[in-house]
Design goal:
CATH architecture of chain B: Orthogonal Bundle
Number of domains of chain A: 2
CATH superfamily of the largest domain in chain A: P-loop containing nucleotide triphosphate hydrolases
Number of domains of chain B: 1
InterPro entries (chain B): MetI-like, MetI-like_sf, Sugar_ABC_transporter
CATH architecture of the largest domain in chain A: 3-Layer(aba) Sandwich
Strand content of chain B: under 5%
Distance between the termini of chain B: 34 Å
Low-confidence stretches of chain B: none
Radius of gyration of chain B: 24 Å
Largest interface: A-B, 25 and 16 residues
CATH class of chain B: Mainly Alpha
Bound molecules: adenosine-5'-diphosphate, magnesium ion
CATH superfamily of chain B: MetI-like
Structural class of chain A: alpha+beta
Helix content of chain A: 10-25%
Domain ABC transmembrane type-1 (chain B): 66-277
CATH topology of the largest domain in chain A: Rossmann fold
Structural class of chain B: mainly alpha
Radius of gyration of chain A: 24 Å
Largest sheet of chain B: 2 strands, antiparallel
Helix content of chain B: over 70%
Number of strands of chain B: 2
Subcellular location (chain B): Cell membrane
Order of helices and strands of chain B: HEEHHHHHHHHHHH
Number of strands of chain A: 23
Membrane topology (chain B): Multi-pass membrane protein
Strand content of chain A: 25-35%
Oligomer: heterodimer
Transmembrane segments (chain B): 70-89, 96-115, 160-178, 208-225, 256-278
Strand order of the largest sheet of chain B: 1-2
Chain lengths: 356, 288
């Protein structure tokens, strides 16, 4: 159980990084609160696994320091950091039994056998493999292997943190739900700091107190699910969170009025956008309303997804998505209005707040 | 599944069958033929039943040679397998060292048997050989021509030098196939160096080790050229292995019947031992 500080971490896999592009992690400066449950979200290749490996000590960062509760651990080994990590691709020791696989991390640390037995049985129960305890791990299916891999991470309950790297990818949806609630329970019980990498936004949003979004080797936003949804700091977060993602339209600012193509909207504040910066307006499909007045759009397609309809349309020459309730009507001469409170302005992809 | 059965497909196997028949089965059958017949010359043969077989099996000469073979194979396996694993574990996994080490390892394997024998024969000579002279200069008495222990040492060191690389290369191939994630997981699980070897590296090397073991066993059990070149079976009969004895019998004394019987026994022993090793080593695989 520890507060983990990443102090200006940068990492390049190559020997001598020359340009910014050589860094797989550009600059990560962040603190994980003790006992926090974080979801780490981001597209493939953005550096999530690299970041986890740096935290656990499998990888030495090229630059920067890592602190646990204020103590510098940058040069400590994985073993000394006392961290559990569950890998993206399940690793099992296939000459051992399922039981011995789970007991392995405990026995390596000299935990007394009765205690080993108690904890292993608990985990076996949790991952629903009790009846497989005495079987060799070799013949197991992919999802059973993943569960063992997960179990080996959870069996140690005195760890500083547990890092999960997409641990549930091949597990069926029901079991996923069960395991996720078990994880939450364990987290509450033992209070370890938890970082959970996932591709799946629903998983991230339901699971974590704080969601960390990474993009291209950087953390672009850290926030509650609501913050990520309402005020995406970076256009990428807008695209990535929410389905469909945020509409981002090229715009130009003049004081407090904003032009998109032929259309002009008035804001109740004056966004400060530097001269020459690429200006964009972001609005979520949920905050566009379709009716008989407002700005003209032409509808190209309507997708019915159950409780809602997604309308694909063209607005000021750009494709946009609009979410309409199931019973909402689609007028013959459609027009749209944007909820002014839901409009975000971006300069060079970063959000420009009301504040400044 | 809807498979079409076409028995004509068996004809496809015919060329291979013929080839194997000519290259293996027919020569083997001539040996079988000799082993059950006797002759007084003139190409006239008569039936001798299992006479030659019981002669061979009752002779001390045979059992002594067999004992020497088993001892030799046992010693070189006990050295080459662990040594090969040890070297493979310490070879670099990436970088410029890899091709360098691989070439270095492959070198002894490229040298023909009789050349290897000649190299060591000269190398060990007390009058002109580098090894012989050096040991002599160091005050260690060494002479493979008249000292049994020295003769054996020379053969063993030579075999280790010649063939450990094979074990190394096979083990190395097994080792590099282990994904990095296994080592990472082992670190997270706090595994010791020994546990990593025991539970990750050894299981991955098991198959190649089995192959290395069988190849080295069969090959060392049939050793002929090197002792023939270096010691000629001596001093006395101390390095007369089955193969050397067989050649003495068949070509030196022209005792075709006993030699044929001995060949067959020799062949069956190798087959039997290989089969035993294979079953023992793979059965632990299944129950584990
Ligand atoms: N061992 C490695 N050697 C070189 N480059 C790597 C290595 N591992 C990852 N990378 C690179 O670093 C970047 C981040 O990778 P990774 O952390 O695995 O991303 P993610 O887990 O988010 O998919 C990628 O561009 C990837 O190609
Ligand atoms: Mg990854």
């Amino acid at each position: 159980m520890a507060r983990i500080t990443l102090d200006h971490i940068r990492h390049a896999y190559g020997e001598k990084p020359k340009s910014e592009a050589d860094y797989s992690l550009k600059e990560v400066h962040h603190e994980w609160n003790d006992g926090g449950a974080y979801a780490l979200l981001g597209p493939s290749g953005c550096g999530k696994t690299t970041l986890l490996n740096i935290i656990s000590g499998l990888l030495q960062p090229s630059e920067g320091r890592i602190l646990f509760d204020g103590k510098d651990v940058t040069y400590l080994s994985t073993q000394q950091r006392n961290i559990a990590q569950v890998f993206q691709f399940p690793v099992i020791y296939d000459t051992m039994t399922v039981y011995d696989n789970l007991a392995f991390p405990l026995r390596n640390r000299g935990v007394a056998e009765p205690e080993v037995d108690r904890r292993v049985r608990e985990i076996l129960e949790m991952i629903d493999l009790s009846s497989w305890a005495k079987k060799t791990a070799r013949g197991l299916t992919a999802d059973q292997k993943q569960k063992i891999s997960l179990g080996r991470g959870l069996v140690r309950n005195d760890v500083n943190a547990i890092l999960f790297d997409e641990p549930l990818t091949v597990i069926d949806p029901h079991m996923k739900w069960v395991l996720r609630s078990q994880l939450k329970k364990l987290h509450r019980q033992f209070g370890f700091t938890m970082v959970y990498v996932t591709h799946d936004q629903t998983e991230a949003l339901t699971f974590a107190d704080k969601v960390v979004v990474m993009y291209d080797g950087q953390i672009v936003q850290i926030g509650t699910p609501a913050e990520l949804f309402e005020k995406p700091k970076h256009t990428f977060v807008g695209y990535f969170i929410g389905s469909p993602g945020m509409n981002v339209l090229p715009a130009s600012i003049d004081g407090s009025s904003i032009r998109i193509g032929e259309q002009t909207l008035d804001l109740d504040y004056k966004p400060q956008v530097a001269v020459g910066a690429k200006t964009e307006l972001g609005i979520r499909p949920e905050f566009i309303s379709l009716s008989r007045d407002g700005m003209p759009v032409s509808i190209s397609k309507v997708e019915d997804i159950g409780r809602q309809k997604i309308v694909r349309a063209e607005f000021a020459g750009k494709p946009i998505a609009i979410v309409v309730p199931e019973d909402g009507e689609i007028p013959a001469d459609p027009r749209v209005t944007f909820d002014p409170a839901a409009i975000n302005i971006y300069a060079d992809s970063w959000r420009v707040g009301r504040e400044g | 599944m809807n498979k079409t059965w076409n028995n004509k497909a068996w004809f496809m196997v015919l060329p291979v069958l013929l080839l194997v028949a000519f290259s293996a089965v027919i020569p083997l059958m001539t040996v079988v033929n000799y082993s059950v017949q006797d002759t007084f010359g003139n190409n006239q043969f008569f039936w001798n039943g299992v006479g030659w077989f019981s002669d061979v099996l009752e002779s001390d000469r045979f059992w002594q040679a067999l004992g020497r073979n088993l001892l030799f194979s046992g010693i070189i396996l006990a050295i080459e397998i662990p040594l090969g694993i040890l070297i493979a574990l310490n070879m670099p996994k990436k970088g410029l060292g890899v091709p360098f080490c691989l070439v270095l390892m492959a070198l002894p394997l490229l040298i023909p048997w009789n050349v290897v024998g000649t190299i060591w024969q000269v190398f060990g000579r007390v009058d002109i050989g580098l090894l012989g002279r050096t040991l002599d200069a160091l005050g260690i008495s060494y002479n493979y021509v008249n000292n049994v222990f020295d003769a054996w040492m020379t053969l063993i060191v030579m075999d280790v030098w010649h063939w450990t690389s094979l074990v190394v290369l096979l083990c190395y191939a097994g080792l590099v196939s282990i994904p990095e994630a296994y080592y990472q997981a082992a670190k997270i699980d706090g595994a010791s160096r020994w546990a990593v070897f025991r539970y990750i590296q050894l299981p991955k090397m098991k198959r190649v080790l089995l192959i290395a073991f069988l190849l080295r066993f069969m090959d060392s059990f049939m050793i002929y050229t090197e002792p023939f070149v270096i010691t000629g079976g001596g001093p006395g009969n101390s390095t007369t292995f089955l193969s050397i004895d067989l050649v003495k019998m068949a070509i030196g004394q022209f005792d075709l019947g006993p030699a044929a019987a001995m060949s067959i026994i020799y062949f069956l022993i190798i087959l039997l031992l290989s089969w035993i090793f294979y079953t023992v080593m793979t059965s632990s695989d299944e129950q584990a």
